Amino acid sequence: MPLRAALCIALLAGLAACGGGGNGGGGFGLLPPPSSSEPPAPPSPPAPSPSPVTSLDAPAHVVANTLYSYTASVADGVAGAWRWVWGDGTPDGTGNPATHVWRRPGSFELAVHATVGDATGSASLATTVVNEPMSAGSEHACALAPGGTVLCWGDNSYRQLGDGTNSGRSTPAPVSGLTGVAGLANGSMHSCALKSDGSVACWGHNDDGQLGDGTTEQRLTPVTVAGLDGVVALSAGLGHSCALKSDGGVVCWGYNAQGQLGDGSGTRQLAPVAVQGLSSVTALASGRHHNCVLKTDGSAACWGYNGYGQLGDGSFDNGATPVTVTGLNGAAALSLGEQHSCALKTDGTAACWGDNDYGQLGDGTDATRPVQAAVTGLTGATALAVGWGHGCALKADRSLACWGGNANGQLGDGSNDDRFTPVAVTGAGDVIALSAGDAHTCALKADGSAICWGDNSYGQLGNDTGNNSRTPFPVTGGAVFWR
Hints:
By secondary structure, the protein is mostly beta strands. The chain has one helix at residues 3-9; strands at 54-57, 61-63, 67-74, 81-85, 93-94, 98-101, 106-116, 119-130, 134-136, 140-145, 149-154, 169-174, 181-186, 190-195, 200-204, 219-224, 231-236, 240-245, 250-254, 269-274, 281-286, 290-295, 300-304, 319-324, 331-336, 340-345, 350-354, 369-374, 381-386, 390-395, 400-404, 419-424, 431-436, 440-445, 450-454, 469-474.
């Protein structure tokens, strides 16, 4: 077809002719006569999609090393894509719901973006993260109070309550001169606090330098750990302490006879020293004489005493530097006991390894395991707390389940029977955080109140008695803790 004729075909009706004067042009003549009616109006451009109104279902206060699920909705249309911006430097999330584990304390702006058609709706929320708002030691416990102060109760033989005395307390008492706290870590007979400026203060027993102040003197009130800053998480064992720094490295100080400082020596250190060969660490936990860290890829590494296989590398050899936990992947958080270790997985299950005399691995047996095994029947877990010989899990519905040794009622099921698989804690609901000590367990509820159960020989249940409790009992003081 001649080019001129082709162009004419595309003209609107009402133009005079195509091909000019009937001189050929491929058989094209005059166009049909115009209609007597008005020409049709050009089609209207499509209306833009309305910007969807997005709502975000999320708590404003969260606890580090807890597996959270976040949901959002749009008022108009169906979202074709979701993007979650956590604000803490971790990669964006997708999908709805989306899961996230907060790692470091601070204030972050959580945002969600929903795409509907060609429009995007957004919602945001200021989120405050604390690192361990409650921590149980061997026979004492501490919790954050409003304003970043700390309250402790229980045994005080080694000044671990930090109130300036060595008198035990069966009800919470303030730690002297301590403010701006963002997280806690209690060892057996000492206590440490992470401050919002990234520094650390410790108090209590110090025979091996576990307070990190360069001395071996017991401290009745908090002292600053020497030369330590940029800290995002803490952990504490029997005679040592460790800190995770913002650059992903770890430092430890104190007792080191089994290599628990991870510096390749067996020499105690009165101030922090770097753990060898560690980087890209996101979480940290300590047991009696060992430690473990979680890496960004969901694997874990451990070091220190390994007489029961608690390092999880398939051997019973101590490790003065970190070794990889065999076969563990997809881990979201860690918690360590006296001679065993446990990991929370991103799918809401858990795995444990090490000593199992009381069923504390939760695998239905009492067999010691130097490699990880699944906790039987546990699903929907969002956080773990492991005591000296027992373990507990916080579930997505804010209930609790525990397993292991139960001689003092520390499992909270109303009995003193050891349990080799998880059992429900009686009457424990609306829980947001938990911690386990030697033979007692404590939990923080959403309303800011605290509950404890188990051994109470030193007043560590905080209920103004010395009586053990097989089920949760309120800590005296009402809703006075962080929330």
